[in-house]
Input
Amino acid sequence: MDFNIINKGPYSYIEEGQGDTIVLLHGLLGSLTNFSKIIPYFASTHRLILPILPVTELPLRQTSIAGLTKYVTDFINYMDLSQFILVGNSLGGHLAVNYLLGEPHKVTALILTGSSGLFENTFGTSFPKRKDYEFIKQKTEYTFYSPTTATKELVDNVFENTSKRENALRIVMLAKSAMRESVEDTLPNISVPTLLIWGKQDRITPPFVGEDFKKLIPNSELYFIDECGHAPMLEQPLDFSRIMRSFINKMSHTPELTQF
Output
């Protein structure tokens, strides 16, 4: 499904649907398309906003978790958003946690899936290996339970992002920043209802990471999806959407919808 990318001021983003707002943050090597399969399930009831994170475009001095968190904060302020649900996958989850702790009055609930911030097996010792398409293909497939989820379009996108030396440098810098800047000590300060959705076969942030998030975040609930890797909303969008919808309905005390 194709979505219209809006360019407004210094920001680019997708906006779909009407209703209460949900902001979705993609991961380090992800993109807006990583959430494309769940947008149809929620656009009929919610306003979905998905900013394009400048993973390979920040000035080098700002290429860090702190720099991207500031970008998210500035974007949300620019859009004048408040009282929204915040969703983050992988690096996006890390940013979501940091944003929430800085602006706790604006977020009504937090949803994390395969979030970094505690432990992440991102690249091993050799990634990104530039200009080696087969290597990039294998690394992209490693993200998922089923290698077929790594479509040619997705692999091409990762390959393009890592082919330029400057891009690869920023990706490595952000990955190292994510490993350094643990959220372990700050997670107990989260006070909003929190949903954790993890792939049972996640090799990037394995299931024990989801369990650790559950132990550290008060008022949190954890669900595992079988035959699923690091991006449940992309690999198992129906199960992901059912869990997310049930959580939202429970929060708002609305009847369960049966559209799935």
In short: Residues 5-119+182-252 form a domain with the Rossmann fold fold (CATH 3.40.50.1820). The chain has one domain: 5-119+182-252. The chain has nine helices and eight strands.
